[in-house]
Specification:
The protein has 517 residues and is of the alpha/beta class. Helix content is 45%, strand content 9%. The chain is built from 18 helices and 7 strands. Strands 2-3-1-4-5-6-7 form a 7-stranded mixed β-sheet, with helices on both faces. The longest helix is centred in the N-terminal third of the chain and has 27 residues.
């Protein structure tokens, strides 16, 4: 067997080295030709950016996601249909404008895309948030001081992206037929009317997050289907002016989150997009860049009855007043309440009685608007009746039982002014004067006696009393005619007592001599 020469061995080694170098160089050019891309996600806090990013990266631990205090970063590796790596997309998320100069630089403009995240939980803020982020992005691009030629190229790239849109049905053609068609008659459609009025030189995608809140808006804010159609019409019209796309998604329900990543891969690496545009399903709207125009948008506004295209968005989509906040009663501060009560107390003490002041304060503390009528007259009569009651008086008769004290709220007629209270001797003297006056006016009237000394007269005495009454009449008449003589009290009382009892004067004894007159 002939030995192999050294020249043949050297040629085989050189061939092997050439093969490996070609493979490495081809792989290097294949992976670096498309390069890495950047996505800048902007939105207000609590708009769903962090959850959306986690769902895009197929993260399973989405329950512990919290709002990002500064800037959040993540990346995803993009592969083609043959599962080969063709690039990498880095996603930056922030809610603050101060981080925008760090994320979007002059060098990243050609390989970047902006995603503006809006939240449907407060639809009345959609227009304001969209204008805020687009104006902020436009001002920042001006501060980058990009050369006019470079900026013109960037804007032209956006125009080409908008004009060269082709649906998924055109992607199914064979590659050969596609190449021949592009070479022979490559036609780029002009930009439709109303599109790219504000061309910022960078692709923009508007994402409406939290579309699962539609049912809540229908229950709590009386939203109807026409409300959501008007929101769609307004967003599509605003996105068309910036040449942006529109996507509805729900990170909580993982709806259309993967579609956003597929669309970004389609824009950056020209991969096949298998999802068609969707404008029928209200919670799965998908409008790619370059598909929409004013004629398609006008189809949504044809059925408007409640809304007008001429009125501003904020006037037609407004929050309802929260009824639950009206039912909540806020308590007054303790110090303010005590200060107010002290002022009321001082004022009432100067003008009103203590009882009235107490009732007014009690009514104000309970929050009542109507105060009970003052019972000063009832209370005054009650206490006066207690003060004029004689101490140590005997039990009252059953026919004249004392009336119960008046209760609060009952109306009692005012009593006459009571006589001043007299001492025991004065009361006795007054009683005697009344008895004397009654005897003078009616000498036949019997003298009043206590109930214990009264006796029931017999039938015979009653007849004697009737017979003795005419005899006493002349004496009374004689006393009236002689005004100079004033009889003493004692004979009057005896005469009155004798007349009252009907007894005759005892006759003198017969055996004794009678004195001469």
């Amino acid at each position: 067997m002939a030995p192999i020469s050294s020249s043949k061995k050297g040629s085989e080694v050189e061939v092997k080295e050439d093969i490996w170098s070609d493979l490495l160089s081809s792989l290097k050019t294949r992976t670096t030709s498309r390069g890495n891309k950047t996505v800048i996600m902007l939105g207000t806090p609590k708009s769903g950016k962090s959850t959306l990013m986690s769902k895009m990266m197929d993260s399973k631990d989405t329950e512990r996601i919290e709002s990002t205090p500064g800037v959040a970063f993540n990346y995803v590796t993009v592969k083609d249909e043959e599962k080969e790596r063709i690039g990498q997309i880095g996603v930056h998320s922030t809610s603050y404008k101060h981080f925008l100069p760090l994320l979007l630089t002059k060098e990243r403009m050609n390989n970047s895309m902006v995603v503006i995240v809006l939240s449907l939980d407060k639809p009345w803020n959609l227009e304001e948030e969209l204008l805020y982020w687009t104006s902020l992005l436009e001002e920042h691009i001006k501060t980058l001081q990009i050369d006019e030629r470079d900026l013109a190229k960037m804007r032209q790239n956006v125009v080409d992206l908008f004009s060269s849109y082709k649906g998924p049905e055109n992607k199914d053609e064979k590659e050969e037929e596609k190449k021949n068609k592009e070479e022979e008659d490559e036609v780029i459609l002009p930009v439709p009317e109303g599109a790219l009025v504000n061309n910022l030189g960078i692709p923009i995608m508007v994402v409406l997050s939290k579309v699962d809140c539609m049912s809540v808006l229908q229950k709590e804010n009386d939203f109807s289907e026409e409300h959501f159609e008007y929101i769609q019409w307004h967003l599509r019209k605003s996105c068309l002016s910036f040449g942006a796309g529109l996507l509805y998604c729900s990170p909580r329900e993982n709806s259309n989150t993967r579609l956003l990543l597929d669309y970004m891969s389609h824009v950056f690496y020209n991969l096949k997009l298998k999802t068609e545009p969707q404008v029928i399903d209200r919670d799965a709207i998908f409008v790619p860049i370059g598909w929409d125009n004013l004629s398609k948008i006008s189809l949504v506004s044809e059925g408007f009855v409640q809304f007008s295209q001429l009125k501003p968005f904020a006037e037609q989509i407004a929050p309802l007043p929260d009824i639950r906040q009206k039912r909540v009663m806020k308590g007054e501060d303790d110090q303010l309440f005590l200060t107010r009560m002290q002022a009321v107390l001082v004022e009432k003490q100067k003008s009103g009685s203590p009882a009235t002041t107490h009732k007014v304060l009690e009514g104000e503390a309970k929050g009542s608007t109507k105060t009970p009528p003052p019972a000063d007259g009832v209370l005054a009569n009650f206490f006066n009746s207690l003060l004029t009651k004689k101490p140590g008086s005997g039990p009252t008769s059953p026919n004249h039982s004392p009336s119960p004290p008046p209760t609060q709220g009952t109306l009692v007629p005012p009593k006459k002014a009571l006589a001043p209270q007299l001492s025991a001797p004065q009361q006795r003297e007054e009683h005697e004067k009344k008895a004397l006056a009654s005897t003078r006016s009616n000498p036949e009237a019997p003298e009043e006696k206590p109930e214990a000394q009264k006796e029931k007269p017999a039938a015979v005495k009653t007849t004697t009393k009737l017979a003795a009454a005419p005899a006493a009449a002349p004496a009374a008449v004689g006393r009236e005619k002689s005004p100079t003589k004033t009889p003493s009290k004692m004979p009057v009382k005896k005469a009155g007592a004798a007349a009252a009892t009907g007894m005759k004067k005892p006759a003198p004894k017969r055996g004794l001599p009678q004195p001469r007159k």
